[in-house]
Specification:
Length: about 300
């Protein structure tokens, strides 16, 4: 086989699995930019592989991606140690077909992605591969360089950890959309009582400005405090504010535009018809992908 033909075949196989590999990397890292870097590193290694010796192309690619993502996780851990304020996953625009895949939509939700942040790198890799993509224990063992028996133990421990912290019930898209619409109407009207009606008493607000944009430096808990923060923050704006509906991380979300530019993405955690988590990403680095990929209808 000529080198040119080998590269063409490698490219065809890589492209066929690209969406899977990106999602694996994103769920391990919580960063679309870093996931793209991991895919680039995966590609560079993949084109050097003798494809005639590869029995299972998908498994081989997942193994390379997982190992590269684990290496990147260590770099991210050091970056997060000096991060200003709460660190939130980079919002990821998701198509309607992702939202219709209930298990995948939940696995990339902000709420679950934040739970994954509390796992060790190896636990996170094992959980993502096993629970989200149903990868076999032997394949995972090869990817994380652990014996299959150890991987089973890690998977059990990680599943128990995540199950104790993830939302208790999967909420339908329509329920989330209804809560978000009530939230938006109250926010646009500066309606403090309206916000209190849609926010759960124990709601937690997390803002991520990355030290570049103004954001709360620690999580804020309680409906009263969160509602006052939101109304006060909107009231202080000196430039035109507009909102747009979007779909982020598999769920309905809001984009806030200040003076025509995307300034924030608001994702939510909804339980029992009320918002129990508000995740507001303002860090420009984490919004650049969304700003370049979408044209949203403002209101």
């Amino acid at each position: 086989m000529s080198d040119h033909h080998a590269v063409d075949r490698a490219t065809e196989i890589f492209v066929a699995h690209r969406n899977l590999l990106f999602t694996v990397a994103y769920e391990m890292l919580g960063s679309a930019a870093d996931a793209e870097d991991v895919l680039q590193e995966t590609w560079l290694r993949w084109v050097e592989v003798d494809l005639e010796q590869v029995r299972d192309q998908r498994a081989y690619l997942v193994r390379i991606t997982t190992r590269q993502a684990l290496n990147r996780l260590r770099t991210l851990a050091r970056r997060k140690e000096s991060y200003v304020g709460p660190w939130l996953p980079e919002p990821l625009l998701t198509a309607p077909d992702v939202a219709q895949d209930v298990e995948l939509a939940e696995s990339v939700s902000m709420a679950v992605m934040l739970v994954l942040e509390t796992l060790s790198p190896t636990e996170r890799a094992v959980f993502v591969l096993r629970e989200v993509f149903d990868v076999g224990y032997d394949e995972i063992a090869a990817a994380v360089d652990k014996p299959p028996a150890t991987v089973r133990q890690i998977a059990h421990r990680a599943r128990r950890h995540v199950d104790a912290r993830r939302p208790r019930k999967v909420v339908s898209q329509s329920q989330t959309r209804a809560a978000l619409e009530s939230f938006l109407q109250a926010l646009e009207g500066g309606d403090l009582q309206g916000l209190l009606d849609v926010l759960a008493p124990e709601v937690v607000y997390m803002g991520d400005g990355g030290g570049v944009k103004h954001a709360a430096l620690r999580p804020i808990a309680g409906a009263g405090k969160v509602a006052r923060l939101l109304v006060g923050g909107l009231g202080r704006s000196t430039v035109p504010v507009a909102f747009a509906h979007t779909t982020v991380n598999g769920s309905p979300a809001l984009a806030i535009h200040l003076d025509g530019e995307v300034d924030a993405i608001i994702a939510t955690r909804v339980e029992g018809g009320l918002i129990t988590g508000l995740y507001v990403v303002r860090n420009p680095e984490k919004l650049s992908r969304i700003a370049s990929e979408t044209s949203l209808t403002l209101r």
